Amino acid sequence: MNLPVWLQAGFWGLVAGGALLLGAAVGYKFKVPPRLIAAIMAFGSGVLISALSFELMEEAFHTGGFTATALGFLGGAFVYTLANWWLAQRGARHRKRSGDQQPSAEQDGGSGSAIAVGALLDGIPESIVIGLSMLGGGKVSMVAVAAIFLSNVPEGLSSAAGMKKAGRSAKYIFGIWGGIALASGVSALAGYTVFEGFPDEVVAATTAVAAGAILAMLADTMIPEAFEEAHDFAGLITVAGFLSAFALSKMGG
To answer: What are the E-state strand segments in the chain?
Structure first.
């Protein structure tokens, strides 16, 4: 690909974010069984856990050392948890649920905006990581792109199914996920352009911030949805997703 590196970063962020739109289309157009949605969500959770363990945290540690990595990791989790708590009070607690948990506009007039902001909050850390992975060598981490893509499909699918049950319009649903897909591209582009030339410790801490936010997001939103329906099989399916991303990481390395 002969595009400038900053444009490549935006492209790969858009590819990964586009999976949200793909999942939303499936969740809106087809009646996918809740247990299948939960299984896909569990698999996607395992994929992301593996990616942040063997790609993000490992890279952050080798780039900036333990202190910068640990502080960034805890900081990312803290900021995400605080923002997620604030949004939960405004109707976005169940934004990734495929069942009847999401409030309708009639039940909670402000929940639509909160859900949109929550979806943006969930997607930005993942996308920034794509841009950060291109610093130095100018080559994207295909493991990170693949992991984010694979986890975004069930995320969009589950959330769109829940939004439809809550009576949200197609314009609202696809407007959110189309906007998040575009924001993913912009965030990846920013991850490269903003941090190019920054000290290694800053890049490492930022990568770890994203990793901490992603892990907090998984624990707060994706894993509960997976367990809600998959029950005893959620753990096994999550392990399968973890192993798949781990194998991809080793083949890529």
So the answer is: none
